[in-house]
Amino acid sequence: MYSREIGGKTYTFEPSGGLLNASLVMQDKETDSYWSIINEEAIHGAAKGQRLEQIPGSEKTTWGDWKRRYPHTKVLSVRHRGQRFEHDPREGYATYFRSDETFRGIVAKDKRLDNKDLLFSFHHDGKPYAVPFKAFDDGGATFDLGGRQLLLYRRQDDSFYRSTVAFLAPEGATFKRRDDGWVLVEGDRVTARFDPETRTFDNPAAEVFHGFDTYWYIWSLTNPKTEILGR
Predict the structure, then answer these.
(1) Are 74 and 83 in contact (CB under 8 A)?
(2) What is the pTM of this model?
């Protein structure tokens, strides 16, 4: 999810109908510029070079997982589907997810990873990064990012439909494994605890960090100077 407020202006976004290396391109109504979500900036038009800002508010998950956690969720449905809002029994994307097939045969030029290697990707201080899922220990992993510790959490049995969650520790603090989860340690004190059910910390000192899960071929074609962590 991205903020509509960019450079002091408010933008209204809609799908452009186009793709960049198999990833969504948006179009704004105010300047008719095109914005790529894979490099998080305007790539054509009067707003070219303006950066998108990720904000909290979205989570990739399945309806079944969400309903177990929030059983009283109100569904804003179309065509009056109401209680019939369930998983697609045909699994329309299953063949794509389970095969080596790429979108329209597009392949990565950067061969450090395989085309369909899954990864958590993000930009930090203007530089692109990627962490392959195979670099994760079961239940998460930590990495150094500009002198601060980055925690990425996902379980080995998590599906593609479930987001990796990420947190940055304050300077000088570290994330430590405890039982089935993690804690944030500042000095000699535990100041935050991770709940694996809600996948959140109970203290905002563990700063939520934004990125998204995708395939290597999609990410690398638009971000050719990506640094790979945990390889």
Answers:
(1) no
(2) 0.85
Residue 89 has a pLDDT of: 62
Sign of CA dihedral 62, 67, 69, 70: positive
> pLDDT tens digits, residue range 42-51?
999 999 999 9
C-alpha radius of gyration, the chain, whole number? 19
3-state helix vs strand vs coil in the chain, percent to 5: 10, 40, 50
One domain for residues 68 and 26: no
CA dist list (Å): 218 to 23, 77, 131, 209, 224: 7, 30, 14, 21, 11
Quote the CA–CA distance of 77 and 70 in Å, as a whole number.
Answer: 17
Per the structure, the complete domain to which residue 134 belongs is given by 61-231
Whether residue 50 is contained in a domain is answered as: no
Q: 68 by DSSP, 3-state: which?
A: helix
Residue 52 lies in a domain: no
Both 93 and 200 in a single domain? yes
Structure tokens at 8: 């002091």
Residues of the chain falling short of pLDDT 50: none
Q: What is the pLDDT of residues 83-126, one digit of tens each?
A: 555 556 666 677 888 889 999 999 999 999 999 999 999 999 98
